[in-house]
Amino acid sequence: MTLDTIDVHHGYGTETVFDGVSLSVRRGEVLAIIGPSGVGKSTLLRLLALFDAPDQGTVRYGGEPVWQIPEWQRLEYRRRIGMVFQEASLFDASVRRNAEYGLRVRQSWPDRIRHELATLVGRTNGTGDAIDALDTVGLREKADQDASSLSGGEAQRVAFARALAYEPDVLLLDEPTSDLDPRNTAVIEDAVLEAKNRGIGVGIATHDMHQAERIADRVAVLLENDVIEIGSPETVFENPADERTRKFIDGELVY
Amino acid sequence: MSLEPATVAPLLAEFPFEWNYIRSIVRVSLYVSITAVALSTAFSLPVALLVGFREFPGKTLLASIINTGMGFPSVVVGLVVLFTVSNEGPLGSWDLVFTPEAMILSQFVLAAPVITGVSLAAVSSVEQNVRDAAYAMGGTRFDVALVTIKEARYGIATAVLAGFGRAISEVGSVLIVGGNIANADGTSVTRTLTTAIQLEARQGRFRTAMILGAILVALVLLVNALVVRLGNGGGGRYG
């Protein structure tokens, strides 16, 4: 399974964001997308998460061009993708209810209604997968707390667990650790590597070059409306093929 | 006259006829207002979500109509509804003149803009990134709408209670379309708390009018207390 964009052109109004971007997220690997602020890393992740259709070009999931099929079929592909945003964006509910959300929307309506009623009368122990996902980020013991009572770092870990709970094939992370302290960053990075070892393909947009070096199998450099270089962290950071990559990494390019 | 419970209780015991009368009025009032508010809510929530999150031609106009509707004079609404259900009106064949159902229709018209307007403010305050998260987790558009309603639940509850307050305390339109009718045995057909107070006061039966007034004020106070409580963030979160 591969999630890829082929020659994608995209923009907002008259502003061009992508001018022919092609890249792929493969199962069991971490692809880091690096680039300066405002270059379109979040926009690229939204295209990969099937939020928006590209203006031109193709987005494929396992070879299937997903914008050429009806919405109800595309939903099946969307449901194989998990996403974590820069902000945790948790629901105003308990940690457990947050972690279960993806599993709940995948249930049949009779099961969902039964589940909601059981929750109303306090007779639910949560779904095993959601609790396991909370375990992965070390927050199992906080399952019954209100999500709004968590610290920023804990909230982001719950957002990660929420995306992991339904076992997606692909996990897309939009600067998930940019607001976090080193400890919470380490927890998220460990969880990313664990997800990768379970065969999940991870695409992570990051500002943090060291993070890309630590966890990525491949690094894509997004500059000037295009992916100008993709390669192993060693190649991209130490021996880049494109001069602009070297300048960006050395901090010589100012945007 | 004092309305302490100690004064009111013997008053009720002394007037069994009035007590039946009052009970039937409260029943009609609650039936009409609760039904109207339930229907208004079912209509208003989808409209609030649509206006809040979709772009379409005429959206600004629709928002203006909703805002204007929040302050619409109830006697005019009553007049229009009366015409609509009269023999000359489009719903003439339904035979609704001077029925509780006609009153439900007029209260629906009065409550819907209030519930839509306040719900619209509540759902619009739900952050886009929370809605995006629901979509990203595999939610359908309907799931995203449900999440939005859940996130805005305190504001929506406030909207419903405000609509109920508007409906139950309104006199002009129910008087016009309901006719303030009671049976020969003194039980209400289309007589509500407000129209009964108006009638009793005019006929000089102040005790009955005062009791009805106290019940109405108690209902409105209860509703307002709930609104204030919800406005402060709600009584506990769900688990």
TrEMBL record, chain A:
<dbReference type="GO" id="GO:0035435">
    <property type="term" value="P:phosphate ion transmembrane transport"/>
</dbReference>
<dbReference type="GO" id="GO:0016020">
    <property type="term" value="C:membrane"/>
</dbReference>
<dbReference type="InterPro" id="IPR017871">
    <property type="entry name" value="ABC_transporter-like_CS"/>
</dbReference>
<dbReference type="Pfam" id="PF00005">
    <property type="entry name" value="ABC_tran"/>
</dbReference>
<dbReference type="InterPro" id="IPR005670">
    <property type="entry name" value="PstB-like"/>
</dbReference>
<dbReference type="GO" id="GO:0016887">
    <property type="term" value="F:ATP hydrolysis activity"/>
</dbReference>
<dbReference type="GO" id="GO:0005524">
    <property type="term" value="F:ATP binding"/>
</dbReference>
<keyword id="KW-0547">Nucleotide-binding</keyword>
<protein>
    <submittedName>
        <fullName>Phosphate ABC transporter ATP-binding protein</fullName>
    </submittedName>
</protein>
<dbReference type="GO" id="GO:0005315">
    <property type="term" value="F:phosphate transmembrane transporter activity"/>
</dbReference>
<keyword id="KW-1003">Cell membrane</keyword>
<dbReference type="InterPro" id="IPR027417">
    <property type="entry name" value="P-loop_NTPase"/>
</dbReference>
<feature type="domain" description="ABC transporter">
    <location>
        <begin position="3"/>
        <end position="249"/>
    </location>
</feature>
<keyword id="KW-0472">Membrane</keyword>
<dbReference type="InterPro" id="IPR003439">
    <property type="entry name" value="ABC_transporter-like_ATP-bd"/>
</dbReference>
<keyword id="KW-0067">ATP-binding</keyword>
<keyword id="KW-0813">Transport</keyword>
<dbReference type="InterPro" id="IPR003593">
    <property type="entry name" value="AAA+_ATPase"/>
</dbReference>
UniProtKB/TrEMBL annotation, chain B:
<keyword id="KW-1133">Transmembrane helix</keyword>
<dbReference type="Pfam" id="PF00528">
    <property type="entry name" value="BPD_transp_1"/>
</dbReference>
<feature type="transmembrane region" description="Helical">
    <location>
        <begin position="60"/>
        <end position="84"/>
    </location>
</feature>
<feature type="transmembrane region" description="Helical">
    <location>
        <begin position="28"/>
        <end position="53"/>
    </location>
</feature>
<protein>
    <submittedName>
        <fullName>ABC transporter permease subunit</fullName>
    </submittedName>
</protein>
<dbReference type="InterPro" id="IPR000515">
    <property type="entry name" value="MetI-like"/>
</dbReference>
<comment type="similarity">
    <text>Belongs to the binding-protein-dependent transport system permease family.</text>
</comment>
<dbReference type="GO" id="GO:0055085">
    <property type="term" value="P:transmembrane transport"/>
</dbReference>
<feature type="domain" description="ABC transmembrane type-1">
    <location>
        <begin position="26"/>
        <end position="227"/>
    </location>
</feature>
<feature type="transmembrane region" description="Helical">
    <location>
        <begin position="209"/>
        <end position="230"/>
    </location>
</feature>
<dbReference type="InterPro" id="IPR035906">
    <property type="entry name" value="MetI-like_sf"/>
</dbReference>
<keyword id="KW-0472">Membrane</keyword>
<keyword id="KW-0812">Transmembrane</keyword>
<dbReference type="GO" id="GO:0005886">
    <property type="term" value="C:plasma membrane"/>
</dbReference>
<dbReference type="InterPro" id="IPR049783">
    <property type="entry name" value="ABC_perm_TupB-like"/>
</dbReference>
<feature type="transmembrane region" description="Helical">
    <location>
        <begin position="104"/>
        <end position="123"/>
    </location>
</feature>
<keyword id="KW-0813">Transport</keyword>
